[in-house]
Design a protein that fits this description.
about 240 residues; alpha/beta; Rossmann fold; seven-stranded parallel sheet; about 15% strand; globular; 3-ketoacyl-(Acyl-carrier-protein) reductase; SDR_fam; NAD(P)-bd_dom_sf; oxidoreductase activity, acting on CH-OH group of donors
Length: about 240
């Protein structure tokens, strides 16, 4: 596996995560597809990659639990011997005004979106292969500051801050750390619970007058994971069609 680069993608079974997995596999990465519950989708994606001559495994883990995050990293190292690229994509979203947000929704979003990323960053800080890349998914709502997104955006703002600081703490390891912040992107996570009127409103906020597609985001991640993107470090790339 010395000449094959290995990527670990959390929440890689569906939506943006699956598109990232497909893009990295197409760029000759061996890919670890992490999932929490979507086993059928994850295994189908792995078989699809293998059918095209690629290398991939699916690993179940709830990254918000430190022991499971450790098991995920260990499974990747056992199968492929190293991890060159970590993509922290796993996330949950529960929209509501702050005044109406339940403790359960608050805790779940911080557990997965922030603590899950923290767990994986802590492991990657010591176990990622030298010269590798860490790419964390944020959101352009951090800039847009839309109503009802308060807790979700707060988790992602924390991720952006951790990422920038970690990029400095990894001095000397030649590891880049960046965030990709999608705007409204046509996935189940985005459309669930929203009216068509609201979806259309968000789509038209972009000067390109459309929703992002998962491959729009995956292409940016693929660039940051490549040698060509390695000089970009400590940054937030807002892949949103110009919405903010």
């Amino acid at each position: 596996m010395k000449n094959v680069r290995v990527a670990l993608v959390t929440g890689g079974a569906k939506g943006i995560g699956a598109s990232i997995v497909e893009t990295l596999a197409a760029n000759s990465f061996a890919v670890v597809v992490n999932y929490a519950s979507s086993s059928d989708a994850a295994n189908e994606l792995v078989e699809q990659i293998k059918s095209k001559g690629g290398q991939a495994i699916a690993v179940k883990a709830d990254v918000s639990k430190n022991t499971q995050a450790q098991s995920l990293f260990e499974a990747a190292l056992q199968e492929f011997g190293k991890v060159d690229v970590l993509v922290n994509n796993a996330g949950v979203m529960a929209l509501s005004p702050l005044a109406d947000t339940s403790d359960e929704d608050f805790n779940k979003q911080f557990d997965v979106n922030m603590k899950g990323v923290f767990n994986m960053l802590r492991l990657a800080s010591t176990q990622l292969h030298e010269g590798g890349s860490i790419i964390n998914l944020s959101t352009s709502v951090v800039g847009l500051k839309l109503e009802r997104y308060g807790v979700y955006a707060a988790t992602k703002s924390a991720v952006e801050t951790m990422s920038a600081i970690l990029s400095k703490e990894l001095r000397g390891k030649n590891i880049s750390v960046n965030c990709v912040a999608p705007g409204p992107t046509e996935t189940d996570l985005f459309t669930e619970g929203k009216s068509q009127e609201f979806i259309d409103k968000l789509a038209n906020m972009s000067p390109m007058e459309r929703l992002g597609q998962p491959e729009d985001i995956a292409n940016v991640v693929g660039f940051l994971a490549s040698d060509e993107g390695h000089w970009v470090n400590g940054q937030v790339l807002r892949a949103n069609g110009g919405i903010v």
